[in-house]
Amino acid sequence: MSEFREITSAVILAGGGNRRFGVLKSFISIEGAPVITKSLKLFRKLFHEVFISTNDPEPYFHLAECSGVTLIGDVLTSLGPMSGIYTALINARGPGVFAVACDMPFLNANVITFIREQHLRHCLECGPCDAVVPVFNNEPQPLSAIYSRTLLPYLQDAIVNDKTSMIPFLRGVNTYFIDESDLRLIDPDGRSFININTTEDYEAAKHLAKGK
Predict the structure, then answer these.
(1) Which H or E run includes 30?
(2) What's the DSSP call for residue 69?
(3) CB 9 within 8 A of CB 98
(4) What is the pLDDT of residues 123-163, one digit of tens each?
(5) In 3D, which of 164, 209, 212 has the Cα closest to residue 30?
(6) pLDDT number for residue 199
(7) Looking only at Cα atoms, what is the longest distance across the chain?
(8) Model pTM greater than 0.85?
(9) Which domains does the chain have, with CATH numbers?
(10) 107, 38 contact by CB (below 8 A)
(11) Which pLDDT belongs to residue 76?
(12) How far apart are CA 115 and CA 83, in angstroms?
């Protein structure tokens, strides 16, 4: 019955040493604070157990010391988030993890709570599933989603065979995709799914933060 337990573990996927902004993307500043600091502050309120998945751990040592977060490195190497999710599932005490990227400046507690509630509801009504993934702008959002321990053998197979594209993978397992219309009632503009990949993204995020 562990599949029906609430998800109490979370992982921030920080990957390797991406320094395209002169600093690691995790430490890009929005509203006067690094994105990862804001994410950790939120996650420590919502989850009992929080991981940072990174293959470049040294910059995160001070966060581990001051916030109690656990640093984990890839067990299986891949280019992308799969290895971080895989490693977090191996280490998590509960039946799954809530996974986000390290460069998402507008994570929303209400959206996260809603996704967790949808996971429980779906399990109780339809039986356990491998993943619960929100959809926004007609696209699955795999970096703000729940992953179950039942995915471990499928993730391992995908990583070993270099099939690490997340959306095709999710369509091939037992994934519950949350209806976009339900999410828009909580986050009409989808800010909680914004991530920063380019300098243009960064400028847009700073503009959004000022306008709120």
Answers:
(1) strand 29-30
(2) P
(3) yes
(4) 999 989 999 999 999 999 999 999 999 999 999 999 999 99
(5) 209
(6) 86
(7) 48
(8) yes
(9) 2-211 (3.90.550.10)
(10) yes
(11) 86
(12) 22
